[in-house]
Amino acid sequence: MVKLKINGQEQNWDGDPDLPLLWFIRDEIGLTGTKFGCGQALCGSCTVIMDKQAVRACVTSVSDASGREVTTIEGLHPAGDHPVQKAWRQLNVPQCGYCQAGQIMQAAALLMDNPKPSHDQIREAMSGNICRCGCYQRIENAVHLASTGV
Amino acid sequence: MNILTNPNKLRGFEKHIKVENVSRRSILKTLGLAGGFVLAAPVMIRPSFAYETGAGKMPHGVVVDPRVFVSIAPDGIVTIVAHRSEMGTGVRTSLPLIVAEELEADWSRVRVQQAHGDEVKFGNQDTDGSRSTRHYLIPMRQIGASARTMLEQAAAKRWGVPASEVKAVRHEVVHSASGRKLGFGELAADAAKESVPSIEGLKLKNPKDFRYLGKGEIGMVDLHDITTGAARYGADVRLPGMKYAVIARPPVTGGKLVSFDGAEALKVSGVEKVMEVKGWPWPSKFQPLGGVAVIARNTGAAIKGCNALKVTWDDGANAKYDSVAYRAELEAAARKPGLVVRKEGDAETALKSADKVIVGEYYLPHFAHVSMEPPVAVANVKGDKAEIWAPVQSPGGTREDVAKTLGIPEENVTVNVTLLGGGFGRKSKCDFALEAALLSKELGVPVKVQWTREDDVRHDFLHTVSVERIEAGLDKNGKVIAWRHRSVAPSIASTFAAGTVHQAPFELGMGLIDNPFEIANLQCENPEAAAHTRIGWFRSVSNIPRAFAVQSMVAEIAQATNRDPKDMLLELIGSPRIVNLSSVKDPWNYGEPYDSYPIDTARLRKVVELVADKGGWGRSVPKGHGLGIAVHRSFVSYIATIVEVAVDDKGKLTVPRVDTAIDCGTYVNPERIQSQIEGAAIMGLSLAKYGEVTFKDGKVQQGNFDDHPVIRIDEAPAVTNVYIVPPPSPDTPPSGVGEPGVPPFAPALINAIFAATGKRIRAMPIGKQLEA
Ligand code: FES
Ligand code: FES
């Protein structure tokens, strides 16, 4: 039995301990904000924050998360008003939106670590997150905006 | 309770239309494969408007009825139906916004409701071909104006005053003479009893009074949900008792299952069942490819189980498909005469007598869509009823196909349209929904079919692969007197009809036969090419190879004659005029009447001049940098792009700046136009730099973002500036936005690389070509 916390709530799993955390979160718990894009840590769609670090839930097993605190997009802010979320709305970042939960979680983790990243640092930190719609210019600007106060 | 909800009796012109337009699904009918297909939807003819569109000729045409699209609750909340699919263009917001504008509704009190697939009720729902705004700007205005008129009539009756004395203003109807006011909610019940006014008598708002249209101040209705994880995509649908399925499909298109051993798969924790999925013979249209499904309690278990399957396939007729050999085949075909599809003057003779002939041969490989959300669908089939939840661009077509595949009546199929995590044409083909329907029928429980990224790349309906060969003949003054363009590529029609070797008129109409250049001797040819995989629509379709070839050639001629590429381009476009296509037997114009949407070289010139001006054409750039320019008309819009590149001494390519000018006629939301163009630059760069799906022994060689890279933020253009040409009049027809940004990007980039390095790229992707 694996025990972990997701968005502050205790969760137990007695199935396959190797099950990627992504599918536990989406299919077993029903938190569908975290997305599947590649399954191989190549796109960042599944990004969640585990103990203050952005991780790819598609290659993190449930047992890797044992005893840890996991935050998904649903748990980032109770009203959805984290500065990153607000900046995203202010700059109309999304197109289809599918990648954006992962982008937002990655950006939130970046700002925890480095509250005032430079544009180069933003580009570097966000380079694991693919947006096929091509919202990159706005993503960069929104992370910058979130870092300077929304 | 909602009031204005009586399902509509079709009104207007009781004209039966034969489907002749090409949408991404109606190709079945245009190819005559589905028998006679006659529809009873009304066409709205609008005598008070300056233009006609092809909307009425789409399958099921247009329905202009406020009772179908608008409902008003007693509390004043206005619900407007969005009948097109949202995949990032903002259409789910912009079409209802048009209704709200004419209705005088306050947007903060409007809710948007997504239509399920029902084209008899809503009219055509195919979200493709960059045509939603183009086809629906006027109908949506009329719907809003009808509902507004009904509210005004109801208020006038209540007050016993002539309707001409009352006016709807911001969610209320006011009688200014007496100062009386009634809210929309208070009037809804009475308004519902009013008869729907005739379209011809409707008074539309004066565009100068618009609050929303053309302003770009309203964010997407899904914006908040997208940022909190609440937005629901196809992959996010969950039903009680639902099973998760992942499918192993034949690795070669047209291959078949011989046998499988599911023993190892069944040992995976969470896997419940392994079963065959029915496949259709090649060419399989939108039908499933077949294979073996692993059914599990969650997607992770299904994927793991699928990887543990042992399957034997019969690879079938396409087992030898090899991209290297196929390219050579296409090149050979392009060097011989082909079917002549446009001929003016005598290019053959003129090329022979030309002082100089410049030849360019341009190769474009297959592209995969790789929308961020891989194909996914949920189906719940119970007896002779089916309910589908899927991110489809074609809700109506999906409904038809599910009914046909399950052998049940169409009325028994409900298709719920979720948000689409990207589409780009892939989700116009509903094979993934059909797979879910087949599995649910067999299992008797709701089933979600999830494609992995590898499934997506390996079993896509790929963008075609092509060789475009252009020969330009110059006289001794350097003037182009002859132009022969041969286009060789397997056609999308091959996915529907065996033995297809020529491109369909809609493909020839994308940058080949619609060439806008003023050249006396001009010939376009289409030599034969057979397909060996599923070919499908990809954002902007054949315009990508055509713009790449034509716009590269322009720069090549400029170089050969020592001219400025922009001046060369303007010279070739020639005088401001309407291009005469009378020499073309079947001139396809994106389904639009040529009178409303002619090829207007004045507009083409204008976007070139605008982008040159705003983008600083000719400005001096640092060493290793270069500027390139290209223009292309597609989806009846005009777009010109300047790309600035920097190439370092190791051949590393970066894009410091992109400038794009677009003339898309009358527009609704400039903010979303801008985002589409920004996105098109990224997609164009992805295609040019990396885009390539290759085959060996019939199998796709790529699978995920490691071997099929796309552009990431650290290599994205630093800035993309967008300039929108204001429409000359409110009667200027709207034109496409979602797709047209893509085609000019790659040639502008390639031309910029030439300016920076002197290297001329004639085959995509660029890959390592700059490193050599
Ligand atoms: S799904 Fe995890 S990184 Fe792509
Ligand atoms: S917004 Fe569509 S993938 Fe990023």
Fold and architecture overview:
- The complex is a heterodimer of chains A (150) and B (772).
- Chain A has 150 residues and is of the alpha+beta class.
- Chain A has two domains: 2-75, Roll (Ubiquitin-like (UB roll)), CATH 3.10.20; 83-148, DNA polymerase, domain 1 (Orthogonal Bundle), CATH 1.10.150.
- Chain A has five helices and five strands; from the N terminus they run ββαβββαααα.
- Chain A has helices at residues 21-29, 83-90, 100-113, 119-125, 136-148; strands spanning 2-6, 9-13, 47-50, 53-56, 69-71.
- In chain A, helix 3 (100-113) runs parallel beside helix 5 (136-148).
- Chain A is globular.
- The termini of chain A are far apart.
- Chain B is an alpha+beta fold and 772 residues long.
- Chain B folds into three domains: 27-212, 2-Layer Sandwich (Aldehyde Oxidoreductase, domain 4); 234-317 and 375-450, 2-Layer Sandwich (Aldehyde Oxidoreductase, domain 4), CATH 3.30.365; 323-367 and 461-757, Aldehyde Oxidoreductase, domain 4 (2-Layer Sandwich).
- Helices cover 27% and strands 21% of the residues of chain B.
- Chain B is built from 20 helices and 28 strands.
- A seven-stranded mixed β-sheet of chain B has the order 11-12-9-19-16-17-18, with helices on both faces. In chain B, strands 14-22-21-20-15 form a five-stranded mixed β-sheet, sandwiched between helices. A four-stranded mixed β-sheet of chain B has the order 23-24-25-28.
- In chain B, strand 4 (78-82), helix 3 and strand 5 (110-114) form a beta-alpha-beta unit.
- In chain B, helix 3 packs parallel to helix 5 and helix 16 (543-560) packs across helix 17 (565-573).
- The complex binds FE2/S2 (inorganic) cluster (2 copies).
- Residues 36-39, 41-46, 56, 58 of chain A line the site of one FE2/S2 (inorganic) cluster.
